[in-house]
Amino acid sequence: MINEALKHCPGIGPVRLAKLHSEGISTWQDVMQYPQRIPAGCRFGMIEEIRRCFTALEHEDIQYFIDHLASADKWRILANYLDDATFFDIETLGLSSADPITVIVTWYQGKFSTFVEHENLDDFLNLLDQVKLLVSFNGSTFDVPRVLDAFHIPSLPCPHLDLRWMAYHRGLAGGMKQIANSLGIVRPADIADVTGEQAILLWQAWIAKQDHAAREHLIRYCAADVLLSRFLAERLVGKDEIEEGKLWDTLPPIASRPTVLTGFTAQPPKPNYSPHKRSLKRKRLLLSMRWA
């Protein structure tokens, strides 16, 4: 599938692409085998670009494809490397860049990994070193910038794909929950109506009262978004590895519903200048030096 990505080649627009298809040029192999069928004005540039694509494919240089393929062809990257993809989502204490990350959940080959502030959040950096392709929904706008700020790193050490814009090119616009509804996907009843504001309440209940039910619920809520990302990715590339009826079977369980969801209004976080907070900040600065 990825070898059918031709829209990014120099001089190739919709009309010329349709003409190439009519001439039997629809893959990278066709370009190299039938160069005489390519218009002279774009022949050299197209052949050179396809050579670079073959080289990137051979060396599994996913970042090259992310940087060069046309937006409408980015789904082909996902189709080619779906089994190597790590899906992730984050929860924060607000939308401001100053609001800390509270939870990160990842999913790779059927297994969840959870990273929690004040516990093991910094271990996410170690995981990034091992990731071949990181996938999110709206991560380019929100999750990735927040990760870069939180861990004081200039860029991710791995390629990243944002499903939101791939979905947009397939006629699926809006947020994750809106797209899930359009696909007929219903979340488990215990998290069906949980909002971002309530996710803040859950974290505050865990920190202030050590409410384990709130902690479990927050992780489950975040994991549901990660699982939805994987499900959406499969739909975008035409695969059905996760059955819709069993979509939620692998979610982290919860023992009880936290009382906080029936209570208060979320309070803005207070600045934390504790020795523990300063120690975490120093640790992250040191960890980030590996990518400086």
From TrEMBL:
InterPro entries: RNaseH-like_sf, YprB_RNase_H-like_dom. This is YprB ribonuclease H-like domain-containing protein. It holds the Pfam family RNase_H_2. Residues 87-236 form the YprB ribonuclease H-like domain. The lineage of its organism: Bacteria, Pseudomonadati, Planctomycetota, Planctomycetia, Pirellulales.
